[in-house]
Amino acid sequence: MSWDNLHFLPLAVFVCLPFTFIISYIIAICLGHVEPVFPYISDTGTHVPESNIFAQALNMVAALVAITIYMRFKHVEQYYRDDLTLTSNKIFRLNRLALYFGILSSIGLSVVANFREIELFKIHLLGALMSFGFGSVYCWLQSWLSFRMVPLVNNKRMAWCRTILSVIITISFLITCVMGQISIHNFHGKDPTNWQPENGGYHTHVISTISEWIAAMALDFFILTYTREFQTFTVSTPRVMLRTDDFDDPYLSHSSRYPVDATINPIQFSSDRETSTPTTIR
């Protein structure tokens, strides 16, 4: 069985991520849990009941992001697997490195969802730094790869678009960190999740929160740029191999494996469905 319409993966991330933030923001505003003027994204998912929705939805989005990142990795790998040039070797290495940073970023997103800032602030902060920090590195690596893969995988316009988004993500993330530290030093209120203008450091706080929202939306748009390229391939489900060396039947007992159906075709391009050679698991 093959999975078509993989372009729905980045589309799902693009829709579900802001939808999660907006729903938790609306609930938090209606219940008076946060200041209406650009709270931190995490502040909108701190108090019950919006925290439950925020955590559940963000965990699902993190899983979708991880799957999308892995599909992108296999997509690039499939194009260059038979190319033995030095350029292809470098692309292979950077593609795998980008996979590691991307998966770490999605794990950070899950950490943000599961560890609320009012309970385990340091772990929550670590998750946010992983999500945006490793996410920025991932975007820069993919932007560099996009230039290297013109015109085989994408065009130069798309490569420049990803580079611009990477710049926005990086600058916004740095502004969030710097302004956040300045504002927290000037804060003299009781609840930083409901930061009021009279609590001190309010203007730098708003700059920090706006930058965080911009970084999150830029990351979201970066994932969206995969939509067109995900239309060029399909994924086939693997087939199961039964181990027979653990059976008691003397006719089946030996140290090797009997492959019941050993063919697997992990990724098959739409134009090559009839002519592609299956890969055998050994």
UniProtKB/TrEMBL annotation:
One of its GO terms (cellular component) is endomembrane system. Residues 6-232 form the CWH43-like N-terminal domain. InterPro entries: CWH43_N, DRAM/TMEM150_Autophagy_Mod. Keywords: Membrane, Transmembrane, Transmembrane helix. It is a multi-pass membrane protein. It is found in: Endomembrane system. Its main location: membrane. It comes from the Eukaryota. Belongs to the DRAM/TMEM150 family. This is DNA damage-regulated autophagy modulator protein 2-like. It comes from Dermatophagoides pteronyssinus.
